[in-house]
Amino acid sequence: MARAVRIHQTGGPEQLQVEEIDVPAPGPGEVLLRQTACGVNFIDCYHRSGLYPLPQLPHGIGVEACGVVEAVGDGVRGVQTGERMAYATPPPGAYAEARVLPADRLIPVPDEVEDAVAGGTTLRGLTAWLLLHRTFPVRRGHTLLIHAAAGGVGQILCQWADYLGATVIGTVGDEDKAQVAAEHGCHHPILYTQDDFREKVEAITGGRGVDVVYDSVGAATFEASLDCLRPLGMMVSYGNASGAPPAIEPGLLAQKGSLFLTRPVLFHYIADRHELLAGASAYYDALTQGVIEPAVGRRYPLEKAARAHTDLEARATTGATVLDLGAAD
To answer: Which sequence ranges form a coiled-coil region, renumbered to this chain (predicted)?
Structure first.
């Protein structure tokens, strides 16, 4: 038996319930992971609310965690009991003390990376990798606009993009978050609550516009972001924190300068194990080399998962939000 957070119907954070569940022995190709830290991400809120439907209810929540391998099933190669492993993959169910998973979805965690960082930032790190290295390969001289620059993904994006030689512009909600973004590689923080970020981007770029916009906010920023792009620039919509972006006619992209628009999903990029390990290796190497120093913000015990969701959706967090399975209620 193990404690786990599940929902019986979709809705608000109050739907998250801690329950005792049976954890089976691992079958062929599977491992049993005794978990130590679980990441809390916006995709979890989307699963809870029903925006991203779950296969059935009741169901677990969460797609990211770190732990120690407790048992392995038949046919598993390259994974041994006692090893520290992380994952960032469906199906949801990561908010749990223990879990059985396919061995080929696990990622070895370097000794230098603590559990809370591996369990709380691997999804964000892989997301940053696909955005900066796969969706739009960032090079020295590029100029980027990153929304939610003080958030979990935003901080990693800013640091990594700064290391790659890009000029980083970021939007934030208040002065404290502007300071956080600046400390993590954002060269030009913009307070969207006080300033029109389109005008600020135009001034910063001398009217040229940015090469790429990375937008996890959605409805509140999408249309204005298109106006921040240079001709042939790329709009990367990868989240819906403020609601889904509006529908768009392809002709509008032509009118605004033959723009590109993409909506990447991480799990499509890492479905192949070689790509999964390539992304994880790039991220963990950046961590161990000091290129990225991800901030673990708030830590909650498993019983406070609903509060973690409430704070995340209210944009009251910075850095990674983690369920610490060693924390007391």
So the answer is: none
| Percentage of residues of the chain with pLDDT beyond 90 | 81
Residue the block writes with tokens 């978050």: 177
- In the chain, where the domains are located: 2-122+267-324, 140-263
Structure tokens belonging to residue 193:
């609550």
Residue 3 is given by DSSP the state E
User: What is the value of pTM for the model shown?
Assistant: 0.89
The secondary structure of the chain in percent helix, strand, coil, rounded to multiples of 5, reads 35, 25, 40
- What is residue 289's three-state secondary structure? coil
CB atoms within 10 A of CB 108: 15
Q: Tell me the one-letter amino acid at 43.
A: I
Q: Which residues pair with 6 in a beta bridge?
A: 17, 60
List the alpha helices (DSSP H) in 142-196: 152-163, 175-183
Buried-exposed string 287-317: b where 16+ CB fall within 10 A, e elsewhere = beeebbebbbbbbbbbebbbebbbbbbebeb
Widest CA span of the chain, in angstroms? Answer: 61
In the block, tokens 């830290």 appear at 37
CA 253, CA 244: separation in Å to the nearest integer? 18
Give the closest residue to 160 by CA, choosing from 171, 144, 180, 179: 144
CA contacts within 13 A on the Cβ side of 284: 21
Check residues 19 and 152 and name the one with the higher pLDDT: 19
Instruction: Give the amino acid at 78.
Output: G
* Domain 140-263 classification at class level: alpha beta
Instruction: Decide: 119 and 34 in contact? Cβ < 8 Å.
Output: no
